[in-house]
Amino acid sequence: MAAGVLLCVAVNLVCLSVCGNLVSGERSFSIDYKNNRFLKDGKPFQFISGSIHYSRVPQYYWKDRLMKMYMTGLNAVQVYVPWNFHETVQGVHNFTGDRDLEHFLDLANQTGLLVILRPGPYICAEWEMGGLPAWLLQKPNIVLRSADADYVQAVSNWLAVLLPKMKPWLYINGGNIITVQVENEYGSYFACDYNYMRHLRTLFRFLLGEDTVLFTTDGNTDKEMTCGSLEGLYATIDFGTDNNLTEAFKRQRRFEPRGPLVNSEFYTGWLDHWGDPHAVVNAQKVSRVLAEMLTMGANVNMYMFEGGTNFGYWNGADHDTRFRSVVTSYDYDAPLSEAGDPTEKLLAIRDVIKQFRDIPSGPMPPATPKFAYGFVTLKKVGNISDLLKTLSPLGPVESQYPLTFEEMKQYYGYVLYRTTLPRDLSEPTPLISPLNGVHDRAYVSVNGVFQGLLERDTVLVMNLTGQQGDTVDILVENMGRVNFGSKINDYKGLLSDLILGKDVLTNWKIYPLDIDGAIAGGWPHSNSQKSPPAPWKEPSLGPVFYRGTLQPNGLAWDTFLKLNEWTKGQVWINGVNLGRYWPARGPQQTLYVPGPLLSTTQPNNITVLELEGAPAHLRVLFMDRPQLNVTAGKS
Description:
Number of strands: 34
Structural class: alpha+beta
Largest sheet: 8 strands, parallel, barrel
Shape: globular
Oligomer: single chain
Helix content: 10-25%
Radius of gyration: 26 Å
Number of helices: 13
């Protein structure tokens, strides 16, 4: 054993704990077409895997989650790589901290878990723009996920950075990656561009080598399997508990007559959108169908095994009949909860896996400790319109007509559009977005007084009053780009003119807001000594910042933040963007606060951007359990 490990170290490769005396040249992972199975080191192999997204779990907790997956009996994990998480700014690549993919692979390796890698370039995953970087949209006519020259060039540049990092981690090279997916569910996309898929196949082969097992994953329809599969890429299928698994695997067989049966996404739960009921999938149904697939000898990946959290602005959105934004929690009703806690579903799944393979002995790691820190009362900092010097230090861009977020090179968060009333409006006058051009919500104030909002697909007109020359501020929020389907070219901001009565509004000052940068730099708490809080009055309507502190008590345990009677907004703790809250619409009522964010010795700074209206009590509550299933209906 020692000689094998020393050899792995000598060639700068990480050796699996199970590698024994194998040297890297003897390691193999392949498809045995004759006997319809995978072979690992020449022996039959069946994977029982679960999906976990390192981008949705704080790095501090990666080892904990992987250990819980291993102790459930899994022998592999499936991992997406979100391109926009690593290349938010074109040409600038970040693989540090919570983005340290190789550290995640190393931890999985140490834990004894193989890896099924899904590097995209498109991933869906209910993630912002399906993982594609928003800077691609600077080319106004770009056709994403196609052989469009600009898109293919960007993809090639990215994969030339990512895949060489992954090559040493391939199982055949001494690492733990056994298979690599090319693109993702491509058959569900309108383009059906085989030239694009051929280009990706060539790139992956060139950068990873001829012996790597490459595969595709597509939904359970003939059309999806037809457009998504390609010779030389092993075709797998995905489906959930409501599908007839015999029929589903028959469909895979039509496209892949020989080789292992593979369900690459067996759905243990489902995602939530704002305003919809919390999704739940029955644990007994999951365990029953899992047992049936394993009995057939199928290879199964459970999507998700832990969902995690859409921190910051990383949630995606759907657009079938209308725009629907994904909530901050990605709990997914998965076997491990959003906070990584084992559930009854996990125990049921472990009982099934026990029937098919020896699972590790020893106790399941427990839930992380939680603490109810109680109430914190916040103080008003100021209206967003009064804070532009702090939030937009470079000042506005002036333009006759509105510019999009993409044209402003501000891809996420918020942009403020300012103009003036062209004439007196003594009577309420309609402000209209005639081409449904508000993407996605616009909060409208006149001379600092909130007058209402416009919302994509649902609220296209509101009334204004005021005097000629009054300042009109329109704060536009990006609620997450569409992550699936034909509408992923999802531009944000004011995409078309706004019409006020019979006037087209022009002469805009457009402020890109670096709210996250200001808060990461210590604002608004750092200058709270210099500027006493505004005297108390009724809480303001419209976009307003509030701040407060959670005093240390020696604990840094996980907790859940509830904003009871607050309307909608964003929360930061100690400079970290926890995500969006919207209790007025639901179903999510609490935000997950990972314990490692909190200080045991220093005051913990809380910053809230409330977009519509705060409650008079201005209190927030830290609880020891989540609330994810209260649907209040549309506000």
